[in-house]
Amino acid sequence: MTNKPKTAMLNSQQFKLIGKEGLGNPRSRVAQSMAYFQDALYVGVTHPRGAGPEDRARILRYDPLQGVWSTVFVSPLTAPDSRVFAQDVLRHRAPRQNSASAVPRYRGFRGMTVFQGRSDPAPALYVSTICHWGVDLLRSLDGEYFEAVPLTGLDNGCLLSFRALLGHGRKLFIAPTGAVDEQEFDHYFSGDPTVYVTDDPLNGVWQPAMEPGFGDPANRTITSLASFANQVYAATGNPERGFQLWKTNARGKPPYRWQPVLRDGAGRYNLNALAPALTVFQGALYIATGLPGLGYDSANNVGPAAAELLRVYSDDRWELVVGEPRFSPTGLKVPFAVRGPGFDDFYNSVFWCMVAHDDCLYVGTFHWEPFECVLMGQPLQGGFQLWASEDGDQWQAVAAAGFGDPFHAGVRTLLSTPIGLFMGSSQEIARRRQRQGTSRVVSGDGCAVWLGA
Amino acid sequence: MPDPLIILCPLRSFSSVVCGMLGQHPEMYGMPELNLFLEDNLGALLQRHQRTRPFAVHGLLRALAQLHDGQQTETTVRRAQHWLNARLSWSTQQVFAYLADLVAPRMLIDKSPATVMSSHSLQIAHRICPNASYLHLTRHPRTTGKSILDLVQRNHEWNGPADPERVDPERLWSIAHRNIVAFTRTLPLGQHMRIKGEDLLSALDVYLPQIAEWLGVRTDPDAIEAMKHPETSPYACLGPANARMGNDPNFLKDPRLRPARAQEQPRLEGELDWRPGSDFSPATLKLAREFGYQ
């Protein structure tokens, strides 16, 4: 008789730092996308700005057997124009211009997935870019050579990126997130709040899988997609009324027929403006919420507020796991974890990513306390937290305070693989105010990647 | 003795009818406006009322008359006034505890909109009843504003002090809710809940059982049915001549449930009736949207 070993939740000692300091470029602040492809880890790193050749986004490969990183793709350079210096809507300050003669076409990679389309001879790695001249979708069959696939059917000239990529059956679903023009860019909203679908990313035509915004102009983006109970689920970003969750069986020809599952940020309204992560765990779809920006969405005047964790079942019943108790049209909602928003931490403004790994659910947070410390001239504290649960109800902090570096403010990616749980961080820049209105940049030294095994 | 329920909201936010409803639950007792949390000391409180809003003591007088004598008449109200006069040195905490004891084992419900106009009063409330449950009741700022203006324009009917020309309903709404949000943020998980008055009044069978469940009182159909009759509260009518008020004037005149009143769905955007050429401020819009208003 064989006893399956009891699944052990990872603890902080089991996480090994396998990549640091921006994986070779300290200006690479965000380990923003990950995929496990042909027995190797692929990581797309992102730069907050793409103002010069030093900000070329890269795709890196980690060989777990050798423990070696290699760079497999570097953004091409292009001539700068006003879009390089477009203002971030959350910053309210025009970026400093420079005299760079070349800038990266891609300053980041926001999504990655492995998918085999109709024209793909084998499963391919698809990577979405962050590009100020219109998002591209890259494809690689070998993890070495990447090419942009035609986005026939998409008007992508002002789209910043695709945040969500989902393979469901034989179809690939993508959702544009963010928009850019000559004046400003928005990482989170605007653009085209539509899910597109094709069964042939290489040669086919992308078709809208839904009416834009599900017919609601306040739905200003699609933040995440998931496959659950034979349905495709899509979560919207809605800074006026809170996120919505919709589902479809995706049968027939697109656009599909969608049904609403949740509205009004599940009754917390716009304090749950976004649902950045959806993950299936033990028969339920878990929904992580949050706000854009550093705890406060200054573009839409929402927050600050901490994030919540919810779950829905295939019959559309929903439960509050972590968050604010409330009355609802379907009954009293009390958090099963007996923890308030942000796992009782006000600074956890987003549950940025989530993954099921070895029968445990992991949630990574974005924690903005370090920025407040910098702004207030106080000693740095805070940093990302990683929480885990074996049953979805009882939660433990696996890691806190950015593993000792408060500048690791967020867990941006979590990826479950046969060799362990990979975790990538976001390490942001902050400015410390000084006397006479001057400021200086205070920052860490780039994103990092850990392997928990 | 059960810990009390304190309803927090600005004036004209359905608090009279909601308190009247909840108070008809067999395990709860809805008070008129006690206004006890404005001062620490009873003597100071009565002086304050006398100086600023004499009618603000009517609720306390009516509650004492009812609880002492089983009826509210000019005579029993006078007796209540004597009772208060003999205890001017009492703290308001003592008075509150005395009332809670009188209604025990039922849960005392307080709803005094004046409490939320200052964070100091909210702190007094919390000091007096640290384990109270707090129900944050909201109403759309546009309908609240219209209702406030309607009230102050009829000041003469009840000797109210407000000058309609000087009342800014948006400011009242905004200050009250900002104070409430700042206060409730400090409370432990589950000690406070928020509900839109419009939702509650338009779906009683959905929300009354949830409120009862939250408070840990009976949720059976009889208890829920009892709550649908605020008009049966002893404070759901005008009081005797020496204590006429104690609740919202409209409620006192017609305390029956009027769900249609709560079904108006105005928009946040657009010119304000009371301030032509102006819209709600960004701060008001922010708060209202966080409460779920559009």
Please describe what this structure looks like.
The complex is a heterodimer of chains A (453) and B (294). By secondary structure, chain A is mainly β. Chain A is 3% helix and 43% strand. Chain A has two helices and 34 strands. In chain A, strands 7, 13, 14, 15, 16 and 17 form a six-stranded mixed β-sheet that branches. Chain A has a four-stranded antiparallel β-sheet with strand order 1-34-31-30, with no helix packed on it. In chain A, a hairpin with a 2-residue loop joins β13 and β14. Chain A is globular and about 60 Å long. The two termini of chain A are 26 Å apart. The model of chain A has no long low-confidence stretch (mean pLDDT 93). With 294 residues, chain B is of the alpha/beta class. Chain B has a single domain, classed as 3-Layer(aba) Sandwich (Rossmann fold), CATH 3.40.50. Helices cover 45% and strands 8% of the residues of chain B. Chain B is built from 13 helices and five strands. Chain B has a five-stranded parallel β-sheet with strand order 2-3-1-4-5, sandwiched between helices. In chain B, α3 packs across α4. Chain B is globular, with a radius of gyration of 18 Å. The relative contact order of chain B is 0.20. The model of chain B has no long low-confidence stretch (mean pLDDT 94). At the A-B interface, loops of A face β5, α10 and α13 of B.
List the topology elements.
The complex is a heterodimer of chains A (453) and B (294).
Chain A lengths: L14 E5 L10 E8 L2 E7 L11 E6 L4 E7 L2 E2 L8 E2 L14 E2 L1 E10 L8 E8 L5 E4 L6 E2 L10 E10 L2 E10 L3 E3 L9 E3 L8 E2 L12 E8 L2 E7 L7 E4 L10 E4 L1 H4 L6 E8 L2 E7 L18 E4 L5 E5 L25 E10 L2 E8 L1 H8 L9 E4 L6 E4 L8 E10 L2 E8 L1 E5 L5 E5 L5 E4 L1
Parallel strand pairs in A: 7-15
Antiparallel strand pairs in A: 1-34, 2-3, 3-4, 4-5, 6-8, 9-10, 10-11, 11-12, 13-14, 14-15, 14-16, 16-17, 18-19, 19-20, 20-21, 22-23, 23-24, 24-25, 26-27, 27-28, 28-29, 30-31, 31-34, 32-33
Chain B lengths: L4 E4 L6 H8 L5 E3 L11 H11 L5 H12 L4 H12 L6 H12 L3 E5 L7 H10 L4 E6 L2 H13 L15 H16 L7 E5 H6 L1 H12 L5 H7 L21 H5 L28 H9 L4
Parallel strand pairs in B: 1-3, 1-4, 2-3, 4-5
